Amino acid sequence: MLRVNDVVTYRAEGYANSETVGTVEDCTLFVPLLIVGETARVRVNYVKKNVAYADVLEILHASPLRVSPPCSHFGKCGGCSLAHLAYDEQLVFKRGKVAANLKKIAKLDVDVLPCVPSPLTVGYRNKLSLPVRGRRGAVRVGMFERNSHRVVETNDCALAGSWARTLVSAFTEYCNASGAEPYDERDFSGVIRHLTARYVDGQLLVTIVSNGEYPYDLQPFERELARLFPRFGLFVNFNTAKNNVILGKKTEHVCGIEYIEGEHLGVKFRLRPNSFFQVNDGVKDLVYSKVKELLDTSRTEVLVDCFSGIGILTNVLASQRYDAYAIEIEPSAVRDAEDMARLNAAKRLTNVCGDVTVELPKIVAANLGKRFSVVVDPPRKGLNEDIVAALKRASPHQIVYVSCDSATLARDAAMLSDDYALTYVQPYDMFPQTDSVETLALLTRRIMLA
Ligand SMILES: C[S@@+](CC[C@H](N)C(=O)[O-])C[C@H]1O[C@@H](n2cnc3c(N)ncnc32)[C@H](O)[C@@H]1O
């Protein structure tokens, strides 16, 4: 039987998410940062009954698929878990993960297409969300270490572009020069909790998350931002909650631009700092274009885009031939969506600010008997029974499901499976170097109505 601190030789036999799994002394052992087929000396750090976890001390036999990770913080920082695996193999891993979840959770043996690669495998993230810790004069801005709340300074994170390095260095210098006190989550003291930022089409929105009133002079940071980024906007968000939620409800604009403006896939958009936006611009465009291609709207009378964010996809799909509804819970995203509807003169589009669980049944009831097309793009927790019931009531001949968690996609496909068959499953590598995968799925009604 294994015990904590035992050092054993381990062979990685398979994957369980991004960790490898094998058996040592009748214990099922999970070890991160290895590749199936590798052998390593590992130290056990946790045991419960016959399940144990361990960390690698030394790789004894390395896989030919092992590569040098593109980031010096790999292994310590909890941000990436697959950066040691050759990129093509990351794609194989992700396809396998989606197929395994569909099989295990939904008992669906469907054909999962090869994962579409990201145009950029590093420097692809348009968003940063970094905890600020340390102490006055020695502030650390970075990512949490794996399985911990200690911050690794990562001003050269490989996933974000060079804009992120420039920003994090300038912000750290500003904090140290102004004597700013970073947040301490042990006793909820200190001021600066997080630095969040978004950089799209050369425009930067920066938000400092403050544990209550913001007491420091922002002008030195404003001057530095103006020197480094031609188009930037600075905001302070106030969050005194004693939990891990990053943003509080109130955000104040300090200076610079109030939103990012752009045009993607022929849709003009505005993006405010608190609205959701897909993190990888290149893959986002591939997914949205495929949704348009897949969705047969030739007989659609009502289109509903559930969990619509700022609504670029809704605008890509909207048409003068049918009514379109976009349902989104975050008020700032709905404000962006309303601006976008005006900018694109989308006349038959209604933006609904509310919970899909409440609003979808209302839209379905008001349009019962019409031909629906529905897109759902929920957060990780997926759908729920009320949403599934409303979908069945609307009875669209196709449901497009964009998922960032194939486990909940599988659960929801199983809930819909009496009425809908999963006819298309396409993973996309929205998040290279990590074990997360975006999946575009098409559910087709089993009985075609006249
Ligand atoms: C994965 S994002 C997708 C956004 C959009 N489809 C896109 O591609 O940018 C999920 C969105 O659902 C919103 N959301 C989360 N829970 C919701 C709910 N219960 N009802 C409506 N919107 C919700 C979030 O604010 C977020 O904008």
Description:
This protein is an alpha/beta fold and 450 residues long. It has three domains: 55 residues, Nucleic acid-binding proteins (OB fold (Dihydrolipoamide Acetyltransferase, E2P)), CATH 2.40.50; 137 residues, OB fold (Dihydrolipoamide Acetyltransferase, E2P), CATH 2.40.50.1070; 170 residues, 3-Layer(aba) Sandwich (Rossmann fold), CATH 3.40.50. Helix content is 25%, strand content 32%. It contains nine helices and 22 strands. The strands form four sheets. A seven-stranded mixed β-sheet has the order 9-8-7-10-11-12-13, with helices on one face. Strands 18-17-16-19-20-22-21 form a seven-stranded mixed β-sheet, with helices on both faces. Strands 1-5-6-4-3-2 form a six-stranded mixed β-sheet, with no helix packed on it. A hairpin with a 6-residue loop joins β8 and β9. α2 packs antiparallel against α3. The radius of gyration is 24 Å and the shape is globular. 43% of the residues are buried. The chain binds S-adenosylmethionine. S-adenosylmethionine (SAM) binds next to β17 and α7.
